[in-house]
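Why do we bother with holo predictions? Because pocket geometry can differ from the apo form. Keep that in mind while you read this record for beta-D-fucopyranose.
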Amino acid sequence: MTFLWGAASSAFQIEGALDADGRGPSIWDDFAGERGETGAVACDHYNRWHEDLDLLTELGLNAYRFSLAWPRIFPDGRRLERRGLDHYDRVLDALLERGIEPVVTLYHWDLPAALDWRLNETVERFADYAQTCFAAYGDRVRWWVTINEPWIVGVLGYQLGIHAPGIRDLRASVEVMHNLLLAHARATEALGDRGHAGIAYSLFPHDAEGPDDVEAAHLSDGYVNRWFLDASLNGSYPADVRALYEDRVGPLDLGGDTRGGDFVAVNYYTRRVIRAAPGHEPFPWDVVTPAGVELTDGGWEVAPGALTSLLLRLKHDYGNVPVIVAENGCIVDEPLHDDRRTAFLHAHVAAVQAAREQGVDVRGYFHWSLLDNFEWALGYKPRFGLVHVDYETQARTIKDSGRAYRRLIEESA
Ligand code: FCB
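The structure, written out:
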């Protein structure tokens, strides 16, 4: 099988054109984060998608991960909008014409504003939406990612309130994450053997700061990683984390089947180093940054070795489940000559190769992101792209890292 070399994006972060072709509002439309910016224009990709697909070719990629905007296809969560469906039809055809394998995410955070993940009914609406997309595009899409990062949705959107819809309620966040996992399971069941389906998890390998922090690190790992991996791959939640939640919010009703998928999409950015903090609410640990480590301009440690161990752990703990690294990238403030992104890319691709050499079934690597884009609560300042976007003129310029990626792919062939 050909290894998938790609870049990743998501609809709301690049498309803009929020009123075009009958699109309905999403929970993100009016949610201005800490910089007061929105996705109203973003990279104007809805109008410029054709030239943006040319960039994929220029970068020498054979795959592209992108998301469908649910509110373009079901503007109020219920009524089908043909123009939205047709838009992605054209995008898929254009990708295949270029010999690029689409990896399609169904839900990358732009929930139709009429829906609410706290309600079980949204699981039904998602199952309908997924069915519609499988029927419309299933002849051309082999790789589906159902839900992007349920932990981030739960924590930032419903526990801390810094992502849409801005709710602060620990109990609601656990219930939402559960509904997202149920939605994933329903979609994979609906797909059957018509393609590959996986869920994208934001996995953060854990290390204890010192010998006294091992227990706290294990529990935090449960909160961030095991909760989700166990749910979708084994069909049950880890007892230690469930006890922690129930201690904080009371008994939880987490019924229904969360199991599903035939691969895991791993989004990897950094590791977490944990210091025990007994008595801290809601959780008894702190995340610390060790002195002297290399940081991205977003303040996250550059830790490629932890990616290798993460992939080995998936193989060891979850029976060598196939994996796609569906996001990996860094904020680097260097506009075009982004040597630190190039170094980051090389180090992380090498980390993936090391895991493959040790038998991990990795099917692809997708760099986040194709373009500089709308980084949610942080707005447009953080730049993740292999391609620079001038937001005044919407001009695109391939960065040095994009060229380096092309060479790396050519050399790996
Ligand atoms: C991930 C998100 C993606 C992007 C990157 C930087 O958590 O999936 O949309 O924001 O982080």
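Residues 96 and 111 are 27 Å apart (CA to CA).
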